[in-house]
């Protein structure tokens, strides 16, 4: 007999690693939770590229005191209820495994005050177990702190990248969410230094200008319930593409390469694709970074058309200059 079932403890750590592989995954899940909780402000703080400490604080709805211990259970979510909900996902999260996974591989502190309560609850968790729970005074909202990620998973710890690399990945991620939710106030602090402080913007154009500080052109196209809004830098720089499907930052290789080819490899490009939720499958991978789009060819056609026609678009940065 050589084949044996693995002990639960091993299974838990292996599966947690599918969702959380590095500090940036942790920040992503926590920021998404804050946005799902309808926060208008999200403050992120990291120390040592997130390897030592990550904190995500928001002013959202908060977690109900009776739910505090449930949120770290696996497959526990307030966002979907049954299979039919999978066809119309509008929240970032829905799998109910992020906080569970983080709890398994870090020392976790969750503080939350539900919007209808006078006091908050602070809960300290280690190895997935609640060590301490007490009432505290705090503002409405939630603050999740992650200490010593992978302290109990030495192999994973060894494979983390250098502090700078991990930090840069977090900065890029935060830019993506800042472009996804331009009306939300985001701050990022690294080793005690402000990396950015992005005030809430009126529209996406204002956020793009705030973030990149250069001129962009806007192009829009739509057909059969699918719409594309595309913003490209006028100047050539180091090319970068930010792609969003129904506000979710995604990394579809095929589509990203198509956009690069179409807009030019030296442009900064921000592309928003909006389509009915049933046309997108975000459930391809636990991290939800890859999505399947059922009408990908229509999306490509819409993008191609934007660059074929004589510019029907509004060159907003230049128009702003003329107006002033
Ligand atoms: P999911 O986001 O897929 O539901 P998570 O493990 O990320 O799963 O979170 C579990 C649950 O905890 C969420 O469904 C939500 O009810 C609650 N929660 C987590 N973070 C927050 C937050 N910042 N504000 C309010 N509720 C939260
Ligand atoms: Mg989540």
Structural class: alpha+beta
Order of helices and strands: HHEEHEEEEHHEEHEEEEHEEEHH
Secondary-structure arrangement, i.e. CATH architecture of the largest domain: 2-Layer Sandwich
| Tally of structural domains | 2
Rough outline: globular
Helical run tally: 9
Describe the structure.
- Belongs to the DNA mismatch repair MutL/HexB family.
- The protein has helices at residues 8-19, 23-36, 98-105, 154-158, 163-180, 204-212, 253-263, 296-308, 316-323, and strands at residues 41-47, 53-58, 107-113, 120-126, 129-136, 141-147, 185-190, 193-198, 216-223, 226-233, 240-245, 248-249, 268-274, 280-281, 292-293.
- With 324 residues, it is an alpha+beta fold.
- It contains nine helices and 15 strands.
- The longest helix has 18 residues, at 163-180.
- Strand 7 (185-190) and strand 8 form a beta hairpin.
- The chain starts with 7 loop residues before the first helix and ends with a helix.
- 30% of the residues lie in helices and 27% in strands.
- The structure holds adenosine-5'-diphosphate (ADP) and magnesium ion (MG).
- Magnesium ion (MG) is lined by residues 29, 32-33, 93, 98.
- Magnesium ion binds at residues 29, 32-33, 93, 98.
């Amino acid at each position: 007999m050589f084949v044996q079932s693995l002990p639960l403890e091993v299974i838990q750590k292996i599966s947690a690693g599918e969702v959380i592989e590095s500090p940036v995954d942790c920040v992503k899940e926590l920021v998404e939770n804050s946005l799902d909780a309808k926060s208008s402000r999200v403050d992120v703080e990291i120390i040592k590229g997130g390897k030592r400490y990550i904190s995500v604080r928001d002013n959202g709805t908060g977690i109900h005191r009776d739910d505090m211990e449930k949120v770290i259970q696996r497959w526990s979510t307030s966002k979907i209820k049954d299979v039919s909900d999978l066809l119309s996902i509008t929240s970032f999260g829905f799998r109910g495994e992020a906080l569970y996974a983080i709890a398994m591989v870090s020392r976790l502190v969750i503080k939350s005050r539900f919007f209808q309560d006078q006091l908050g609850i602070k809960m300290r968790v280690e190895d997935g177990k609640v060590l301490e729970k007490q009432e505290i005074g705090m503002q409405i909202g939630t603050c999740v702190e992650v200490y010593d990620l992978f302290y109990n998973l030495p192999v994973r710890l060894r494979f983390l990248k250098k502090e700078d690399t991990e930090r840069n990945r977090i900065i890029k991620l935060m830019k993506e969410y800042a472009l996804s939710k331009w009306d939300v106030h985001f701050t990022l602090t690294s080793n005690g230094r402000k990396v950015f402080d992005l005030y809430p913007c009126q529209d996406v154009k204002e956020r793009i200008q705030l973030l990149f500080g250069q001129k962009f052109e806007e192009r829009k196209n739509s057909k059969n319930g699918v719409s594309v809004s595309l913003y490209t830098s006028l100047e050539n720089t180091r090319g970068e593409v930010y792609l969003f499907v129904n506000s979710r930052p995604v990394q579809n290789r095929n589509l990203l390469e198509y956009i690069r080819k179409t807009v030019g490899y030296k442009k900064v490009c921000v592309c928003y694709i909006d389509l009915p939720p049933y046309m997108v499958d975000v459930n391809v991978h636990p991290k939800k970074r890859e999505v399947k789009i059922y009408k990908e060819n229509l999306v490509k056609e819409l993008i191609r058309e934007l660059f074929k026609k004589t510019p029907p678009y509004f060159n907003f940065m230049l128009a702003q200059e003329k107006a002033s």
